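ugh ok so i messed up the first submission bc i forgot one of the chains. this is the corrected input, ALL of the components this time, i swear. 567 residues overall. if the numbers dont match what u have on ur side tell me asap before i send this to the collaborators (the ones from the other lab, u know who)
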Amino acid sequence: MTAVSLELRQVTKRFDGRDGGVLAVDGVDLVVGAGEFVSLIGPSGCGKSTVFNMVAGIAEPSSGEVLIGGQVLEERLGASAYMPQHDALLAWRRVIDNVTLPLELRGVRRREARARAAPLLERFGLAGFDRAWPWQLSGGMRHRAAFLRTVVTDQPLLLLDEPFGALDGITRADLQEWLSGVWAEFGATVLLVTHDIAEAVLLSDRVYVMTPRPGRVAGVLTVDLPRPRTLALRDDEAFAAVERRLRHELNAAMVTAGEFAEP
Amino acid sequence: MMPADWLVNWRCGGAPLGSPGMALLTSRRSGVSATESPAPVGPPSTRTRRSPRWRAVLPPVLVLVGVFALWQLLVSARSINPAVLPGPRLIVASTWADRANLWPAVATTTVEAVLGLALAGVVAFAVALAVDASRTVRASLYPLVIASQTLPIIALAPLVVIWWGFGMVPKVVLVALFSFFPMAVGLIGGLAAADPDALNLLRTMRASRIQLLRRVKLPGALPQFFTGLKISVTYAYSAAIVAEFVGAQQGLGVYMTTAKNAAPIRTDLVFGAVFVTALLTVALFVVVGLIERLAMPWRARPGR
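and heres the new structure output, hopefully the right one now
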């Protein structure tokens, strides 16, 4: 797999409606280099998920361009692998069949699809659970299964939409560290949407900060911390410093947008 | 007594109905839970965790037995004319004695009920898929599906007999008319309730509409479909019998009419046919429940 780059040029999304509709995303410029891990952080309602849907091809921008691998694709659906906020595991499929779903939809034979996924199960902490139903998994395991489903097709571009948002703090921290390690192995280009500052710092090479309503890019922050990163890094002064800067950027973005304005 | 015995037997996992088909179904089900429970953290098998079935079944059965006992006592003590109100003991004895006549009636009405349900199921699927596929169809068809329920379907019984004669077809049609609505509404609702996250996810995997339907919407709609089907099942025999009242050569409705018109009047046999019908409906309900479990193996979670 060769990682591809992702670029958004002046992407705007307006949802039609009464009173001229809603401007959800306004002129977003964003670059994710090939093999880079970039996060998009912002308060809820800042259009993060809308940006995502546009990159994934579920929604079309009202104006602006989305370039994948340097090109404006005719059809973006299928050009990236998407991991939704809730794991969206299909309750009626066993874990192995959930994981191989994207292969199956591409017409890969069942046996071959399973053969491809099987060796990954262990790396994803799912060994022995291939025949289990999703309801039998813990929250963390469900997310690892959903992530395995995302990477099983070897897509060079991964879109992770608040993948750990619904988890408890302990499981989340555990999965963040795990994801950091797995990403180093797979080396895909990743765009992560999150509202968790520590998560963004731990995982990303760069972090885009967005303002709420309409979503604009307020700033970009480079996370200059050595890899591989582990949870222990959180105790580090350097980590805390980046975290602090990011928090300030975020607060500034909120103030600009009038969310935190003094009366 | 008979219904009570039968229910207790089935619920305790004893020989169900004594029919080989049913026995096969149950044993298969227990086979599944034994061999396929996904071991590692595998939650304890559904059977052991759940409180024994008979505990749920026993109270209503006891009430039923009590009612029948009271009935019997009343009839015996006040020596009520059996032509007006026969006691349970007489009903069971006469019905059993007349089983040679009753059996073909049961078979005919059962075939009508099952075929009617099947026809309604097929039409419900077709309508639900059409409604799901296009907004125009939904807007124009769905209100009519709802409105169709305002028709007094029972009053259509003479019509279907006029159109299709005294054979099996009008009964099947009337059963289908009765049972269509719950299934259709269940399916339409189930298809519409598909998880938008899952649908979007599959879209990013470039799934076609058929693939979305087969892999997300239909499996997700099954629970609601079965809820509808279970409601439909409770109408099926009654609908077939009503159609038979209007005109038929064979069936439980004919059996009841014949018993009523006999000289002397056979109230005991009318009662017998009524109880047999009730039992058949319960049996059909149970069969549908078993099919539901087989169709949705993923739902075998504890506490459900």
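quick check: Residues 110-299 of chain B form a domain with the MetI-like fold fold (CATH 1.10.3720.10). that seems consistent at least. The radius of gyration of chain B is 23 Å.
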